């Protein structure tokens, strides 16, 4: 599971500057308030979004209703790019965690630019192949790693992506997440995540500061090798 969407950020970075400029010149401005949905799984896939400001979460729901957060995306990331290739309905639900400002690139615009420069399609295919590798790794983690390791992996990824040093050996995770969100990232039940997080809280390995998690002793919550 990717916390900051590195693969999605690669999409624009891999394109020639003039191609990116053509796409951005025709992009529409979109805003979402915190908690507002950008799109839901099953919605029409009519284009992708580039994040200029804010924070988005990408999640899936199983048939039983269980939620799994696939990624937390920051400015510079692209979301919904699958629809540029196949035009099929959205495969996941994307919601703003913070007030967000985005630019929307329609599939019609993408198709027009691709007709002029086939390199664009090759760049998108490379990013999607990377996403598939990330998905395979996440599945392996879910199937073979103990539950405590999965929660540790989620916390470590959050620390890497959103961590801010606040003292010797202390790292504040600068994004507010509930225990249910961390459970959805790790692919475990909320009860399991709560038990593990509370264990670390009692031991002083992590703390809560104004609603944010703070890693007090990173070595104590390191995930075991997968």
Automatic annotation (TrEMBL):
Q: Which residues form the Cyclic nucleotide-binding domain?
A: 11-131
Q: What name goes with this protein?
A: Crp/Fnr family transcriptional regulator
Q: Which GO terms describe its cellular component?
A: cytosol
Alphabetically list the UniProt keywords. Answer: DNA-binding, Transcription, Transcription regulation
Q: Which InterPro entries match?
A: cNMP-bd_CS (IPR018488), cNMP-bd_dom (IPR000595), cNMP-bd_dom_sf (IPR018490), Env_Response_Regulators (IPR050397), HTH_CRP (IPR012318), RmlC-like_jellyroll (IPR014710), WH-like_DNA-bd_sf (IPR036388), WH_DNA-bd_sf (IPR036390)
Q: State the superkingdom.
A: Bacteria
Does this UniProt record's set of keywords contain Transcription regulation?
yes
Segments crossing the lipid bilayer: none
Q: Which SUPFAM superfamilies does its entry note?
A: cAMP-binding domain-like, Winged helix' DNA-binding domain
Entry keyword annotation includes DNA-binding: yes
PROSITE patterns recorded: CNMP_BINDING_2, CNMP_BINDING_3, HTH_CRP_2
| GO MF term (any one) | DNA binding
Q: Which residues form the HTH crp-type domain?
A: 145-219
PANTHER family to which the protein is assigned, alphabetical: CRP FAMILY TRANSCRIPTIONAL REGULATORY PROTEIN, HTH-TYPE TRANSCRIPTIONAL REGULATOR ARCR
């Amino acid at each position: 599971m990717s916390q900051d969407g590195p693969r999605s950020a690669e999409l624009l970075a891999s394109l020639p500057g003039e191609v990116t400029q053509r796409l951005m010149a025709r992009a529409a401005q979109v805003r979402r308030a915190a908690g507002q949905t950008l799109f839901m799984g099953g919605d029409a896939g009519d284009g992708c979004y580039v994040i200029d400001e804010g924070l988005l979460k990408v999640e899936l729901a199983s048939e039983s209703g269980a939620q799994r957060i696939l990624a937390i995306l920051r400015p510079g990331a692209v979301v919904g790019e699958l629809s540029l290739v196949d035009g099929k309905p959205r495969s996941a639900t994307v919601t703003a965690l913070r007030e967000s400002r985005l630019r929307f690139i329609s599939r019609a615009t993408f198709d027009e630019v691709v007709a002029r420069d086939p390199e664009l399609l090759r760049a998108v295919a490379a990013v999607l192949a990377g996403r598939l590798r990330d998905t395979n790794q996440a599945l392996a983690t879910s199937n073979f790693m103990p539950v405590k390791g999965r929660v540790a992996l989620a916390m470590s990824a959050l620390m890497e992506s959103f961590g801010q040093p606040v003292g010797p050996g202390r790292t504040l995770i600068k994004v507010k997440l509930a225990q249910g969100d961390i459970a959805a990232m790790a692919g475990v039940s909320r009860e399991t995540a709560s038990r593990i997080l509370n264990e670390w809280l009692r031991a002083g390995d992590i703390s809560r500061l104004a609603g944010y998690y703070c890693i007090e002793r990173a070595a104590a919550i390191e995930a075991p090798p997968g």
